[in-house]
Structure formats: C-alpha cells, structure tokens
C-alpha cells in the first residue's frame, strides 16, 4: 500500500507540474509551479493514510482545475510580457 | 471503451478549438504587433483574479443563473445556497457570523453605507464623527457630505510614521460621538493601524468603530470579536477576487443599526436591497477561502520579496526614504521617495513596470498624495514617491528586474538633475532663495 501511494504521489506531482507549465500567463504559470512544488514539499513526511488520501484528492481536484483553467486562458491569452518576451516557458 | 459519440464530441471540440485559435491568431495580428505589456507591480490598485476563483464563478455565469431571492424554484434555491456558502466563507475569514455579512458592490459602497448609515440613524442624539486624515477618498468624501448635512467631523492627524495617536483619539471622543472610522492597512503607504487598541477604546466609550479593511482582509489575520470592530468593509478585487463586489460586516451583538442607502425589496436584512450577484458573491467567497488557506504562505512569500526589493534599492542608491513606519506595516505595499528625482518622470522612465505614484483614485491629478502630506513628508519628497505593490503572483525575477531598472533610472535622472548637482557640491537646498522672474 505504501509503495503504490508513493507512486501515486509522484505521478500526480509530475502531472501537476506538466500541466502547470502550459499556462500562457507568466504570473499564473510561475505561481502554479511554485505552489505545487511547495505544497508537495510541505507534506513530504505525512504518514497517516487518511490525511494522505485527503491530500491526494485535493491534488486531483487541483489538476482538474488547472486543466479547466488552461482551456479558458488559452482562448483569452495574455500579450507577451515586455520583459519575458524572449524567454522560453519555464 | 471509446464510444462513437465520444469520438464525435472529441472531433467536434478539436475542430471548434482549432477554428477559435485560428480566429484569435488572425485577430491578434490585426492588433498592434508585438504589443508587450509591462510587469504588474501595482497590487494595491487591483489584483488579478486567482484561477481558482474564476473556476468557482464560471458555473454561475453559465448555467446556474437563477436569482438567489427566487423562492419558488430550483434555480433560485441553488443560487441561494451558493450565496449562503459564500457568506459563510467570508465570515470564516474575519471571525464573524454569516448573518453579519452584507454583500455590496465594493468597499466604496460599504464605506458609504457604514459611515452615512450609522451617522444618519443616530443623528437625533449623536452628531460627531471621528476619522483620520489618511483615509480612503470615499470615507473622506462621505464625511464631507455629512458635514454639509450638519454633522461635526474630526479628522485626526497622524504621526510622522503614519500611525494615529491613541491618546489624541481618546481626547477627541465626545459624549455625542457616534462613529470612529480608521482604515486597517493604508493603501498608499501600507501602514497597519493599532485596530485592536482602537476597538477596545471605542467599546469602552460606547462608540461604534468602523474599519476599512479592503487592503487587510486575507492578508493579515483578522478577528472582529478580538478587535471589537463593529463595521468592516471588504473589497473583492483586492484579494484576487472579482471586481464589482464587496461586503460589509455589520455586528449583531451589540446591534449596530444603519439607515440603508439603497432601498428596495428588503434583501440583505433590509440594509442593502437589490439582487445579490451570485457569480460575484461566489467569487468573493472563494477568494476569501483561498486567502484563508494561503495566508501564511503568501505572507512569507511577500515578506521575502519585499525585503529583497528594499534591501537592493537601499544598498545601491542613497537618499531613498520609505514612507511610513518600518515595523507596523503590511510588507507588500512599499512607498519609496527618491530625493532629487521627480516622481512622474521616474514612473515614465520605468515604463516597463506597472506602478503608481499614489492611489489609483488620485493618480489622475498632479497633486502629491494627501496621505503623504498628512504624514508630514516634505513637498519635494512627496512629489517623488512611488508605490510598489507585491502580491501572491509576484516572482523574484520581477522584483529583481524592477529593483535594477529603478536603480538604473534613478541614477540616470539624478545625473540630469541640477538639484542633485548642487547637493553633490554641498549646497543645502533649503537655504537657497529661489528668485521669481
């Protein structure tokens, strides 16, 4: 059980980071990446399976939310930021 | 198992998406090419909506469009339950009861409602109101209107660090004072007033206490019972929520009576009639819930960025003054005065950063901000002040870029400034007698 939950956590993390990278807006993109990373880091040592399940559900909801918001934002994209115009997506 | 209908839907969706993208590409080419937008560093003026807030609002903009006051059908019931859920979320953030929250169109309306409402309700016996000189324009203007109606208004001065003097406030309270209004966090200089002490003082003197917490809600922990606040204004678009909505906290025990500004069908306890805009209310509720969850994380991030920014600027250029108390403040609102540099020209030089030299409502005029005047800033320093706003979505890169650009432009502008030349030569500017031609 522990092994599969670690795998679950890792796969959710990878998915969340992959989806967050797709935000067209620089500010939303950087915030999503930072927040996801910090949230997973903060809960690294959680052992209690109930708490873990709740956190994983929250992560899945966040993933669905990011995917929905990506669709919305991609149809109303921001103009390039004057500063980050030449930079690649993070 | 992929059914044929699924495939059809997917194919149609892709086709629609492709067409939309094509339309947008064509449209964006028609607009100015390579239109680049500045960095956003003006979080006190307004904030971008958090994607989580938009996600909560969208269903109510699309299919769940019922009027929350319709009692007879499911559209009304579901809107009402969404509105009540939002009310609970807002109340939880400030430590209030959901029945004490009234939805309004923003903090300006909340401020108008509380000041005019309380003053007019108790006008038979109480004719005195106390506020400060650094309040938001809507508070000051409401007081001006009340003065014309025959009320006595005292505008408390602030100390040089922006805080009010509690001793002075106590002396100013008269037996016929009905309301004291002091904003929690100032939108121009970021000063945090001692609201708890003021609240206890007002309660002991039986005076109602209103605070404009538009910049404070969701950023610092607030508890209206702890602070003994009777009325509190909340703004949606300052906490990553939608524009056009706000709330007013009106205490029920001990009861605060208000004469309503907007009359009608008796919605919102009769205090603010009118259909509550469900999607906006839901957005405000979601913004409050997110702010509560993220408060510690955001505060840590903003404090770190603010420290980095100020240290960088202060270490590279001399004669920079941070307006307001260095400790009793919200770190995300930094108001700096750069001596011997004109504020508007610095703003224009920093054209790739979105900044402001005062509050948005006073930015149209060329006068220096009245808040800076109230804290006793010299006229020339008041003209050269810029407000930097840091928020949830600001990154280290943006802060570094802004600091570097600011340092570079200040140095460049100072090279061109004759005042700077004179200061370098050791002339005391205050001793110069400027002649008239």
Automatic annotation (TrEMBL), chain A:
Annotated family: Belongs to the complex I LYR family.
Name this polypeptide is given: Lyr motif-containing protein 4a
Protein's GO biological process: iron-sulfur cluster assembly
Stretches assigned to the Complex 1 LYR protein domain: 7-64
Membrane-crossing residue ranges in chain numbering: none
Listed InterPro entries: Complex1_LYR_dom, Complex1_LYR_LYRM4, ISC_assembly_LYR
Domain of life: Eukaryota
Organism: Triplophysa rosa
GO CC, one annotated term: mitochondrion
UniProtKB/TrEMBL annotation, chain B:
Residues in Aminotransferase class V domain copies: 40-401
Alphabetized GO MF terms: cysteine desulfurase activity; iron-sulfur cluster binding; metal ion binding; pyridoxal phosphate binding
Coiled-coil residue windows: none
Top EC group: transferase
UniProt keyword Metal-binding, yes or no: yes
E.C. no: 2.8.1.7
Keywords of this entry: Iron, Iron-sulfur, Metal-binding, Molybdenum cofactor biosynthesis, Pyridoxal phosphate, Transferase
GO cellular component, one term: nucleus
PROSITE patterns reported for this sequence: AA_TRANSFER_CLASS_5 (PS00595)
Cofactor annotation: pyridoxal 5'-phosphate
GO biological process, one term: [2Fe-2S] cluster assembly
Catalytic reaction(s) noted: L-cysteinyl-[cysteine desulfurase] + L-cysteine = S-sulfanyl-L-cysteinyl-[cysteine desulfurase] + L-alanine
Assembly behavior: Homodimer. Component of the mitochondrial core iron-sulfur cluster (ISC) complex composed of NFS1, LYRM4, NDUFAB1, ISCU, FXN, and FDX2; this complex is a heterohexamer containing two copies of each monomer. Component of cyteine desulfurase complex composed of NFS1, LYRM4 and NDUFAB1; this complex contributes to the activation of cysteine desulfurase activity and NFS1 stabilization. Interacts (homodimer form) with ISCU (D-state); each monomer interacts with the C-terminal regions of each NFS1 monomer. Interacts with HSPA9. Interacts (via homodimer form) with FDX2.
Record family assignment: Belongs to the class-V pyridoxal-phosphate-dependent aminotransferase family. NifS/IscS subfamily.
Protein's name in the database: Cysteine desulfurase
Organism: Triplophysa rosa (Cave loach)
Taxonomic path: Eukaryota, Metazoa, Chordata, Craniata, Vertebrata
């Amino acid at each position: 059980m522990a092994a599969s939950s670690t795998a679950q956590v890792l796969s959710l993390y990878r998915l969340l980071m992959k989806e967050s990278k797709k935000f067209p807006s620089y500010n939303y993109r950087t915030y999503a990446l930072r927040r996801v990373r910090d949230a997973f880091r903060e809960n690294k040592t959680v052992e209690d399976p109930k708490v873990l399940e709740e956190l994983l559900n929250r992560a899945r909801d966040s993933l669905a939310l990011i995917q929905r918001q990506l669709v919305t934002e991609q149809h109303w994209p921001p103009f390039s930021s004057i500063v980050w115009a030449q930079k690649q997506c993070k | 198992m992929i059914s044929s209908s699924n495939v059809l839907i997917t194919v149609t969706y892709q086709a629609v998406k492709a067409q939309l993208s094509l339309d947008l590409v064509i449209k964006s080419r028609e607009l100015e090419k390579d239109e680049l937008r500045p960095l956003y560093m003006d979080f006190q003026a307004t904030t971008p909506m958090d994607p989580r807030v938009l996600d909560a609002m969208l269903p109510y903009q699309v299919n769940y469009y019922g009027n929350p006051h319709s009692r007879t059908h499911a559209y009304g019931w579901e809107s009402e339950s969404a509105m009540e859920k939002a009310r609970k979320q807002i109340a939880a953030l400030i430590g209030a009861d959901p029945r004490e929250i009234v939805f309004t169109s923003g903090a300006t309306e909340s401020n108008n409602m509380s000041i005019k409402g309380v003053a007019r309700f108790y006008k038979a016996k109480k004719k005195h109101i106390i506020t400060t000189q650094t309040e938001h324009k809507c508070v000051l203007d409401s007081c001006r209107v009340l003065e014309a109606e025959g009320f006595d208004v005292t505008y408390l001065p602030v100390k040089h660090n922006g805080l009010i003097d509690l001793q002075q406030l106590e002396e100013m309270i008269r037996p016929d004072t009905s309301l004291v209004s002091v904003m929690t966090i100032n939108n121009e200089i970021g000063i945090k007033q001692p609201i708890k002490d003021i609240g206890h003082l007002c309660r002991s003197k039986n005076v109602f206490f209103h605070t404009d917490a538009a910049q404070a809600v969701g950023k610092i922990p607030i508890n209206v019972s702890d602070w003994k606040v009777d009325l509190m204004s909340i703004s949606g678009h300052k906490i990553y929520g939608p524009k056009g909505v706000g709330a007013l906290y009106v205490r029920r025990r001990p009861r605060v009576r208000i004469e309503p500004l907007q009359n009608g069908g008796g919605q919102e306890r009769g205090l603010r009639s009118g259909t509550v805009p469900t999607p906006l209310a839901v957005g405000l509720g979601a913004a409050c819930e997110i702010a509560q969850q993220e408060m510690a994380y955001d505060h840590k991030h903003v404090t770190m960025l603010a420290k980095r920014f100020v240290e960088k600027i202060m270490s590279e250029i001399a004669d920079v003054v941070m307006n307001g108390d260095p400790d009793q403040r919200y770190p995300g609102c930094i108001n700096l005065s750069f001596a011997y540099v004109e504020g508007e020209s610095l703003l224009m030089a920093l054209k790739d950063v979105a900044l402001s030299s005062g509050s948005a409502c006073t930015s149209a005029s060329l006068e220096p901000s009245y808040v800076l005047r109230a804290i006793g800033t010299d006229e020339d320093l008041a003209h050269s002040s810029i407000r930097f706003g840091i928020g949830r979505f600001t990154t280290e890169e943006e802060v570094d870029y802004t600091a570097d650009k600011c340092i570079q432009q200040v140095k460049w502008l100072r090279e061109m400034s004759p005042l700077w030349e004179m200061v370098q030569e050791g002339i005391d500017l205050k001793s110069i007698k400027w002649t008239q031609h």
